[in-house]
Amino acid sequence: MTGVKVVLPGDIIDTQQPDGDEQAVIRLGPGLVQASDEVTAVTAGILRSNSETSQWWVVGNKRRYVAAEGEPVVGVVAARHGEGYRVDIGSAHDALLPLLAFEGATKRNKPNLAVGTAVYARVVVANSVMDPEIECFNSHTGKSEGYGELAEGFMFKCSLGLARRLIDTKAPVLAALGKGLPFEVAVGVNGRVWVNAGTVQSTILVANAIRNSEYLDAKQCRQMVKELLEKQ
Amino acid sequence: MVAEIGPSNIEAAFLLEALKKGTRVDGRGIYDYRTLKIACGPTYGLAEVQLGQTRVLARVSCEVTRPFPDRPTEGIVLFNTELSNMAGPGLESSSKSSTQEVAISRMVERVIKQSRAIDSEALCILAGEKVWTIRIDIHFLDHGGNLIDAASIAAIAALRHFRRPDVTIDGEDAIIHDVRERNPVPLSIHHTPICVTFGFFGVDGELLVLDPSLLEEQVQVSSFTITLNAHREICALNKAGGIPLSANQIQRCTQVALAKVDEVNEKIMLAVKATTA
């Protein structure tokens, strides 16, 4: 792509590649929706595309989350109902987490989460007319795949742009930290990140390094992490 | 709108565990203020304060009005605060002000008006006829905790930065000079009251921190605001609810606050001077 294309909500996107196949099925990522025959931007940001896979998406930064299907989120249990939990995922409406949406959960044996418990979950239903729905397992395989209750450690909030960058396992700050000390991290694209590095000090260090990395490039990230690790 | 449900259990537990070890979750020491940035201008009476993630904008304006009948020689000072859900998703968007907003606005008003920081008699133009009304609008742009300190710093910086049109009195007539005609004049301000807020944690509030962040504010069992000026005079104390504190703790807070007030005061003076020279 030549140059950077900035899009605003409501912009109609021309997804036709100059030398591309007209029949190619295009795949829309975050920030784009299809309305009848046209593709429209719903967030402000930079338009990106991959011509080989015909994927299109918008890279932007916000602080308020809008749920989208398939995205991993970190939520906090707000209330318990008969058939599920109401979970705050930072979006306009609380998400519903069914009692049976956990690995190995049955009618008789289901997890008991207190109000205020943090959970790592995936959005399964997200549309404009229903409350979002999340689950803590993969409903096809029945395995947790890393989702579930986040028992120890610390959770902090960051911008949605940073959270999306952290989802990439090659994120420079995570790679640099990983060389220095062992830690676990669960990134929710709703701008909540959970970390656990065993000790209080290391966990604070990891959390601060991630928060500081927002406006740093890869080289600066490595330098910043190095300085933090030396100070410890 | 979803009401803010407060911090998750792991955040609260981790914060307390870290505090017991003498560290804070954002890496600060317990007596550290967050980075304070004060920017004044470009127009007179405009100040933006950034305290870590918290951002507050204060705007001072003036107009000529009739004084209150019982105080014919005193100018009027009005405060207005705007705490909308722009600052944080948990805040209400309705026009009626929340209890939190009322608490902040009353505290700032008390700190500046009742400590007589502004010389209200200097705002008189013609006794019983015309006085200046000074209006201070405080807008909360981002809620990262400790709004009271940020708001009071923003208000006093904006007041220090403000210039009102010059007035000459000719018998019974007052002439208000246009700012292009005659240089506007600063307000007469006696001293600079600065709020310093502490948060208390633990069963008896034995753990304390300076300048609590939003998460710390949500977990704290009590808070305490002490207002001092550069002459080391206490202008106001505020402790709204929470667990009782011992005299020792209050003394300790006062000592810490004394040191911080000088730093903050210097920053305000620098910011004001930089744009009004």
TrEMBL record, chain A:
<keyword id="KW-0539">Nucleus</keyword>
<dbReference type="GO" id="GO:0071038">
    <property type="term" value="P:TRAMP-dependent tRNA surveillance pathway"/>
</dbReference>
<dbReference type="GO" id="GO:0000176">
    <property type="term" value="C:nuclear exosome (RNase complex)"/>
</dbReference>
<dbReference type="Pfam" id="PF18311">
    <property type="entry name" value="Rrp40_N"/>
</dbReference>
<dbReference type="InterPro" id="IPR041054">
    <property type="entry name" value="Rrp40_N_euk"/>
</dbReference>
<dbReference type="GO" id="GO:0000467">
    <property type="term" value="P:exonucleolytic trimming to generate mature 3'-end of 5.8S rRNA from tricistronic rRNA transcript (SSU-rRNA, 5.8S rRNA, LSU-rRNA)"/>
</dbReference>
<dbReference type="Pfam" id="PF15985">
    <property type="entry name" value="KH_6"/>
</dbReference>
<feature type="domain" description="K Homology">
    <location>
        <begin position="153"/>
        <end position="201"/>
    </location>
</feature>
<dbReference type="GO" id="GO:0071034">
    <property type="term" value="P:CUT catabolic process"/>
</dbReference>
<dbReference type="Pfam" id="PF21262">
    <property type="entry name" value="RRP40_S1"/>
</dbReference>
<comment type="similarity">
    <text>Belongs to the RRP40 family.</text>
</comment>
<dbReference type="InterPro" id="IPR012340">
    <property type="entry name" value="NA-bd_OB-fold"/>
</dbReference>
<dbReference type="GO" id="GO:0010468">
    <property type="term" value="P:regulation of gene expression"/>
</dbReference>
<dbReference type="InterPro" id="IPR036612">
    <property type="entry name" value="KH_dom_type_1_sf"/>
</dbReference>
<dbReference type="InterPro" id="IPR004088">
    <property type="entry name" value="KH_dom_type_1"/>
</dbReference>
<dbReference type="InterPro" id="IPR049469">
    <property type="entry name" value="RRP40_KH-I"/>
</dbReference>
<feature type="domain" description="Exosome complex exonuclease Rrp40 N-terminal">
    <location>
        <begin position="26"/>
        <end position="64"/>
    </location>
</feature>
<protein>
    <recommendedName>
        <fullName>Ribosomal RNA-processing protein 40</fullName>
    </recommendedName>
</protein>
<dbReference type="GO" id="GO:0034475">
    <property type="term" value="P:U4 snRNA 3'-end processing"/>
</dbReference>
<keyword id="KW-0698">rRNA processing</keyword>
<dbReference type="GO" id="GO:0071051">
    <property type="term" value="P:poly(A)-dependent snoRNA 3'-end processing"/>
</dbReference>
<dbReference type="GO" id="GO:0003723">
    <property type="term" value="F:RNA binding"/>
</dbReference>
UniProtKB/TrEMBL annotation, chain B:
<dbReference type="GO" id="GO:0071028">
    <property type="term" value="P:nuclear mRNA surveillance"/>
</dbReference>
<comment type="similarity">
    <text>Belongs to the RNase PH family.</text>
</comment>
<dbReference type="GO" id="GO:0035925">
    <property type="term" value="F:mRNA 3'-UTR AU-rich region binding"/>
</dbReference>
<dbReference type="InterPro" id="IPR020568">
    <property type="entry name" value="Ribosomal_Su5_D2-typ_SF"/>
</dbReference>
<dbReference type="InterPro" id="IPR001247">
    <property type="entry name" value="ExoRNase_PH_dom1"/>
</dbReference>
<dbReference type="GO" id="GO:0005730">
    <property type="term" value="C:nucleolus"/>
</dbReference>
<feature type="domain" description="Exoribonuclease phosphorolytic">
    <location>
        <begin position="33"/>
        <end position="165"/>
    </location>
</feature>
<keyword id="KW-0963">Cytoplasm</keyword>
<dbReference type="GO" id="GO:0000177">
    <property type="term" value="C:cytoplasmic exosome (RNase complex)"/>
</dbReference>
<dbReference type="InterPro" id="IPR027408">
    <property type="entry name" value="PNPase/RNase_PH_dom_sf"/>
</dbReference>
<feature type="domain" description="Exoribonuclease phosphorolytic">
    <location>
        <begin position="191"/>
        <end position="259"/>
    </location>
</feature>
<dbReference type="GO" id="GO:0016075">
    <property type="term" value="P:rRNA catabolic process"/>
</dbReference>
<dbReference type="InterPro" id="IPR050590">
    <property type="entry name" value="Exosome_comp_Rrp42_subfam"/>
</dbReference>
<dbReference type="GO" id="GO:0034473">
    <property type="term" value="P:U1 snRNA 3'-end processing"/>
</dbReference>
<dbReference type="InterPro" id="IPR036345">
    <property type="entry name" value="ExoRNase_PH_dom2_sf"/>
</dbReference>
<keyword id="KW-0271">Exosome</keyword>
<dbReference type="GO" id="GO:0034476">
    <property type="term" value="P:U5 snRNA 3'-end processing"/>
</dbReference>
<keyword id="KW-0694">RNA-binding</keyword>
<dbReference type="InterPro" id="IPR015847">
    <property type="entry name" value="ExoRNase_PH_dom2"/>
</dbReference>
<dbReference type="GO" id="GO:0071038">
    <property type="term" value="P:TRAMP-dependent tRNA surveillance pathway"/>
</dbReference>
<dbReference type="Pfam" id="PF01138">
    <property type="entry name" value="RNase_PH"/>
</dbReference>
<protein>
    <recommendedName>
        <fullName>Exosome complex component RRP45</fullName>
    </recommendedName>
</protein>
